[in-house]
Design goal:
The complex is a heterodimer of chains A (483) and B (232).
Chain A (H helix, E strand, L loop, with lengths): L2 E5 L9 E7 L5 E8 L5 H4 L8 H5 L7 H15 L10 H33 L10 H7 L1 H22 L8 E2 L2 E2 L5 H8 L7 H21 L1 H6 L6 E6 L11 E5 L5 E6 L8 E4 L8 E4 L9 E2 L2 H7 L6 H13 L10 H21 L18 E8 L2 E9 L5 E7 L1 H4 L1 H16 L7 H12 L5 H4 L9 E5 L5 E6 L1
Helix pairs in contact in A: 4-6, 4-12, 5-6, 8-12, 10-12, 11-12, 14-15
Chain B lengths: L3 E6 L2 E6 L4 H7 L23 E4 L2 E4 L10 E3 L3 H17 L14 H8 L16 E2 L5 E4 L8 H5 L9 E4 L6 E4 L1 H5 L3 H10 L5 E3 L12 H4 L4 H4 L2
Parallel strand pairs in B: 1-5
Antiparallel strand pairs in B: 1-2, 3-4, 3-5, 6-7, 7-10, 8-9
Classes of the chains: A alpha+beta (483), B alpha+beta (232).
């Protein structure tokens, strides 16, 4: 008797989605889908607005990493106002934006690892759901919980100092930034009372990487085997192949590490990337145009970035990247749970970069904005915490936005998340007639590894309690559970 | 030589030059009466009614009522403040005021008044009118979503020979501000900036100059509306 299992909504991710799993008569998984059931429509309602509103308006897509949208939009508008593509700004303009971005990656990664993902690692995928949450972490692992909260706070304060507010600021404007960093602000981060200073953040970020490596050593089967499947990987890298979360060229590698896209100017992204629409989800499915939708899908985010980058331009994170790459003998790492490892390496990199930038006197200079000859089209890409984020705007003669296309990080990860969910469903649910809470959570753990922001991905804000329903082949409800 | 008159606001003895409007007379005595359509130096209209006070028991607009000897004025009372709050709420629901992305946020008088009168959820239903952005003028962008029809721009912005650059168009709920295509097309930078500055909301915007003042340094970030008068 065939069955259909529905998981709705999924918890400890941002946004609202559901999972359906179809089992055949023998209890084998026939089809698995992650559905995104919310729709926002930012691409449509920015039409007609003056273009300079985009960075402030579009960042309202998200409350977790609005800075990514803010900066991607600002980068697209840099092109429109003739300030070049990422490297044409004044040193103060670019470095203030970079500081804002590293602050945001740092706080978002800390939020994900400590608040959303760590309960699964600390208490087990099938641990007691009453303690398998952030409150449980706070009660049982107080030091870790405090670190998570304080790291997030530090990142948020950096955002406030650069963007004006911790959430939804206005710092980045077309062609630059609207403020520099005062000496007082700088010193509050460099010489702040313990633990709120840059040195402590680097120390804690290193400790988080070490914690994961220790956990990995003790739980190899889970970390290496859970939701593992081959895929391509895509990200921005700096021209010289370094990891660069703010600016670079597009690079994609296949599952063997062969470069299938390299040194691509993202202004031409439409020549290389297309999006497929499927009727059962509001989220599109991007793929590499020349390979096609079947095989051209790719992963983005921390795992992809650690795979595509040749090196990381900060010493402690580079050391950790070498260990990360050595684990797969230099081949692309396709283990979904290693996403957490990669994310923590990036957290360390962000902490190092924040410290370096805070010591840079360019941040106190007053040359904030550049402008040149205006054009009608601009594309801005950035490596958001969850992966590569595309913003593309076209304006009319009267400075109004005529067209906007946003390919959000989570959208890029749509197919991989579906694959991950399928992989876990096959492993955990094949032949099962009763749904256990652990099974439900295993599916969520696979999704959670990608730190998806489903709200952004459909251009919605919501909570994601999980509901699973089990249907027989005739669509009769035979079991239903809610987390 | 001017004559001074005695009057009372909320029972407080006040002194001001006879004939000046109540709004100014109150300010001179360190008392704030909120205004929205009123602008210094331009003949008042009493259009928005935010400045409504009770004068000897009758509702009057403080921006158009001259002060006289012995006036008894109620200003800061729960009843009057609720009327003012209701007016602010009406203005919000009648347009499309999305403060989060508005360039004027932090410098907007309507927003500042909403904070002062603690507007949380309007008591009236939102109308969500369908309005357009008019970006045809080379220097000023006109966003009808935010216009509260205070008429400040019509009254204060004139050419050197006294001609109006702004005017009303249409009637009733469709009433809107227009810019004279010929005069507006030749508007000076100075006058364009004055138009933007004089607009109490974000209905008139300068082209390509948005968000240049960081959050924290905007007018009402530094000092909430009304404090300036109350400090006198």
């Amino acid at each position: 008797m065939g069955q259909k299992i529905t998981i709705e909504p999924v918890t400890r991710v941002e946004g609202h989605g559901k999972v359906t799993i179809h089992l055949d008569d023998k209890g084998n998984v026939k089809q698995t889908r992650l559905h995104i059931v919310e729709f926002r429509g930012f691409e449509r309602f920015v039409q007609g607005r003056p273009y300079w509103e985009a960075p402030v308006l579009v960042q309202r897509l998200c409350g977790i990493c609005p800075v990514s949208h803010h900066l991607a939009a600002a980068k697209a508008l840099d092109v429109i106002v003739g300030a070049g593509t990422g490297d044409g700004l004044t040193p103060t303009g670019e470095k203030m934006r970079r500081l804002m971005h590293y602050g945001q990656v740092f706080q978002s990664h800390a939020l994900h690892f400590f608040h959303l993902a760590s309960p699964d690692l600390l208490f087990g995928i099938d641990g007691d759901p009453l303690i398998r949450n952030v409150i449980g972490v706070a009660l049982k692992h107080k030091d870790l919980a405090v670190q998570g909260v304080m790291m997030r706070k530090f990142g948020q304060e950096i955002i406030k100092a650069t963007a004006g507010k911790k959430i939804h600021g206005t710092g980045a404007i077309p062609g630059g930034i609207n403020k520099n960093l005062s000496i007082e602000e700088r010193d509050s981060f460099l010489k702040g009372a313990d633990p709120m200073n840059a040195d402590k953040m680097v120390e804690w970020a290193q400790a988080a990487v070490d914690f994961f490596k220790g956990y990995h050593k003790a739980n190899k089967a889970l970390i290496d085997g859970f939701a593992t499947f081959p895929s391509s990987h895509l990200s921005l890298v700096r021209k010289d192949g370094a990891m660069d979360l703010y600016h670079g060229v597009l690079r994609a590698i296949d599952t063997n590490g062969k470069k299938i896209l390299d040194d691509v100017d993202y202004q031409d992204y439409l020549d290389y990337i297309d999006e497929e629409v499927r009727p059962w989800s509001y989220m599109k499915f991007p793929y590499l145009y020349n390979i096609g939708p079947e095989e051209g899908w790719y992963r983005v985010g921390p795992l992809a970035r650690c795979n595509t980058a040749d090196f990381i331009p900060s010493p402690l994170a580079q050391k950790e990247l070498e260990i990360f790459k050595a684990y797969t003998n230099g081949k692309p790492n396709n283990m979904s749970m290693h996403m957490h490892w990669a994310r923590l390496i990036e957290t360390l990199h962000s902490a190092e970069m924040m410290r370096e930038l805070l010591n840079d006197p360019d941040l106190q200079k007053d040359d904030l904005v550049v402008k040149g000859t205006k054009v009608k089209r601009g594309v801005g890409l950035i490596e958001a915490p969850r992966g590569t984020l595309f913003h593309h705007y076209e304006i009319n003669d009267q400075d109004q936005i005529e067209m906007a296309n946003l390919i959000v990080s989570t959208t890029n990860n749509n197919e991989p998340m579906n694959r991950a969910v399928n992989s876990v469903a096959v492993e955990y649910m094949t032949g099962q007639k009763e749904i256990t809470e652990g099974m439900m959570n295993a599916v969520e753990v696979a999704i959670r590894a990608y730190d998806p922001c489903l709200s952004c991905a459909t251009h919605a804000l919501g909570q994601m309690p999980l509901e699973i329903t089990l249907y027989d082949a005739n669509n009769n409800l035979i079991d239903k559970k809610r987390s | 030589m001017s004559t001074l008159v005695n009057f009372k606001i909320d029972g407080v003895d006040c002194l001001a030059e006879a004939g000046i409007y109540l709004v100014e007379a109150a300010a001179e005595n360190g008392i704030y009466i909120p205004t929205l359509c009123n602008i210094q130096g331009v003949k008042p209209r009493g259009a928005c009614r935010i400045c409504t006070v009770m004068v000897n028991g009758r509702p009057m607009t403080a921006c158009t009522t001259p002060v006289t000897m012995g006036m008894e004025i109620q200003n800061d009372t729960p009843e009057i403040n609720d009327i003012r709050k209701a007016i602010i709420e009406v203005l919000f629901v009648e347009g499309n005021h999305f403060c989060p992305s508005c360039e004027k946020s932090g410098c907007c008088e309507l927003q500042a008044l909403a904070y002062r009168f603690r507007v949380m959820v309007p008591r009236f239903p939102f109308l969500f009118p369908r309005r357009e952005v008019d970006a045809s003028n080379p220097k000023i962008i006109k966003d009808h979503n935010r216009c509260i029809l205070c008429k400040r721009c019509i009254r204060a912005i004139k050419t050197e020979d006294g001609k109006n650059i702004f005017a009303y168009k249409k009637r009733g709920i469709e009433l809107e501000i227009i810019i004279d295509p010929e005069l507006g097309g030749k508007i000076t930078d100075e006058l364009a900036q004055k138009s933007v500055d004089i607009c109490p909301v974000g209905a008139l915007l300068p082209r390509e100059k948005a968000y240049q003042v960081p959050i924290g340094r905007r007018k009402y970030d530094i000092e909430p509306i009304g404090i300036e008068d109350e400090k006198k």
